[in-house]
Amino acid sequence: DAGVIQSPRHEVTEMGQEVTLRCKPISGHDYLFWYRQTMMRGLELLIYFNNNVPIDDSGMPEDRFSAKMPNASFSTLKIQPSEPRDSAVYFCASSLQGQPQHFGDGTRLSIL
Amino acid sequence: GENVEQHPSTLSVQEGDSAVIKCTYSDSASNYFPWYKQELGKGPQLIIDIRSNVGEKKDQRIAVTLNKTAKHFSLHITETQPEDSAVYFCASDTGRRALTFGSGTRLQVQP
C-alpha cells in the first residue's frame, strides 16, 4: 500500500521566497494533518482537515502560512514570504475517523 | 490546552535489556494514547496505541500501560535489539483529533 507521499523531500530557498509543500494522503482517508518538527518546539500540529474542510488552524504560526485541500487526494502548505525561522521538517499525516494517524517522511525545509 | 511530558530524553541500554519510557498528560479528557517510533530521515511510525478504557496492551516485545487516575502512560520494550534504536514519541488525543506529542526519547541499544 502506498503511504502518505510528500514532496519535495528537501527544499532550500532564500528568505522572502514563496515555498509550497505538497502532500498526497492515503487513499480513502478523510482526515489530513500538517505538523512541523523543530529541535526547540518538537512536533506541533499546524492545521488539520476533515473531508477537505479545515477544522482547526489554531497551530498555524501566522498569516504567512496557508494550507489548502482542493480535493481528497491533495493538500498544500504554503509559506509566503518565507523566513529563516520557518526552517524545520514539515510532516503530513492522514487517517480514517477513529483510526491512527499515518505520517509521510516529511519535507526538510531550509530558509537561508 | 493539553500538555504531555516525556522522560527520559535519552536512554541507553544493553541489547537484551528492557527499556521503559514514561509520559504524563494534563487533560483528563484525553482518551487515546499512541506511541510513535521515528528513525533518522523518516516520519513517525505508529508502534502501539491504547485507549482510555484499557489499562494495558501488548504486542510481542512492546507493551503500553495506562493509569488514568495518575494521568500517566508508559512504553515497555523487552529484549531490546539494535534495530530498536530510534527516537520514540508519546502522544495524547482529547478526541479533537489533534495529537499533542511529548518531547521524544532517544533510545540507544548497545550491541
Largest interface, C-beta within 8 A? A-B, 22 and 19 residues
Q: What kind of sheet is the major sheet of chain B?
A: 6 strands, mixed
Distance between termini of chain B? 41 Å
Helical content class of chain A: under 10%
What is the overall number of helices of chain A?
A: 0
What Rg of chain A do the Cα atoms give? 13 Å
Roughly how much helix do the residues of chain B carry, as a percent range? under 10%
- Please provide the count of β strands of chain B: 11
Give the overall average pLDDT of chain A.
95
Assembly form of the protein: heterodimer
What's the rounded overall pLDDT mean of chain B?
Answer: 95
Number of strands of chain A: 11
Overall structural class of chain A, as computed from helix and strand content, comes to: mainly beta
Key terms for this structure?
heterodimer, A: about 110 residues, mainly beta, seven-stranded mixed sheet, 11 strands, B: about 110 residues, six-stranded mixed sheet, five-stranded antiparallel sheet
What does this structure look like?
The complex is a heterodimer of chains A (112) and B (111). Chain A has strands spanning 5-7, 10-13, 19-24, 31-38, 42-50, 53-56, 65-71, 74-79, 88-95, 102-103, 107-111. Chain A is mainly beta. In chain A, strands 2, 4, 5, 6, 9, 10 and 11 form a seven-stranded mixed beta sheet that branches. A four-stranded antiparallel beta sheet of chain A has the order 1-3-8-7, with no helix packed on it. In chain A, a hairpin with a 2-residue loop joins β5 and β6. Chain B is built from no helices and eleven strands. Chain B has strands spanning 4-7, 10-14, 19-25, 32-38, 45-51, 56-59, 62-67, 72-77, 86-93, 99-101, 105-110. The radius of gyration of chain B is 13 Å and the shape is globular. Chain B starts with a strand and ends with a strand. The interface between A and B is medium-sized, with 22 and 19 residues.
